[in-house]
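Holo model, estradiol. Inputs:
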Amino acid sequence: MDSSKSDYYENFGRIQGILMYKDFLKYWSDVETFQARPDDIVIATYPKSGTTWISEIVDMIYKEGDVEKCKDAIFNRIPFLECRKEDMLNGVKQLKQMESPRIVKTHLSPELLPVSFWEKKCKMIYLCRNAKDVAVSYYYFFLMVPVHPNPGTFSEFVEKFMDGQVPYGSWYKHTQSWWEKRNDSQLLFLFYEDMKEDIRKEVIKLIHFLGRKPSETLVDKIIQHTTFQEMKKNPFTNYTILPEEFMNQKVHSFMRKGISGDWKNHFTVALNEKFDMHYEQQMKGSTLKLRTEI
Ligand code: A3P
Ligand code: EST
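Output:
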């Protein structure tokens, strides 16, 4: 496969300078003008940060731990706001037709998020994952989701990632923009690594944030239902419902490893040094500190 520059950008365009899927951009005014409702909950992440995991947890909280009520594809229960593939996938349309309270998935930065969510003071959850593990997960996502170009070798892909030349742009800018909002009472800022370390603590935090009571039975049910192994075998969370032309899980499964620190199996010493130097420059002055292993 050819990974030359012109091919690489074939299915991408830009919004405010940020790389984005062309399919999404065709209907961008629908996203910009989206009308939030005050009881919407926004789950915002940079891609590959554990969106599906936290989405299932939040839905379980809303469904009061009733697994039966979670038996529909995750992208139907928690529509992906800006996702659009002609008439086949349409996050805005799904959300408009949905009863309240709605749970909204997005990968948008605060600047690109429809203003209506800010105006209506909707609750928002931002889940952050360390950049190295995100880069690894994103690399495999490029390989399995055919809309993406050939990412080349892992180190070639990491160059693109560091340069923000991937959908949703720079991880560094995305996380820092959301981090600046962390003291807004409407926002809960969480870390994937904390969830891996102590899921009970983070689930309880989420339940409180959503204004509910964390009974032990509810917390136990949620934890049991949302382990990596459970979500990997659950057809409603593992994306096997998406057709192969959208996501080819013969390459590898969407639920790939679900660990912290897999970057160590992918970064060479030289690449790691380069990445760390660039990371320091990009995150200079930021109080946002991420753990790269637990
Ligand atoms: P890996 O590729 O490192 O395995 P997103 O949902 O934002 O696309 O993120 C996908 C990443 O979250 C994948 O990471 C996936 O395995 C991981 N993931 C999904 N469900 C998980 C769970 N229940 N526990 C831990 N990690 C999970
Ligand atoms: C992008 C980010 C994400 O978190 C999940 C998905 C799943 C569906 C994907 C999409 C994506 C990227 C764009 C598509 C879409 C299916 C068709 C579309 O072209 C690949």
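The chain is about 40% helix and 10% strand. The chain has a mean pLDDT of 97.
Archived with the compound record.
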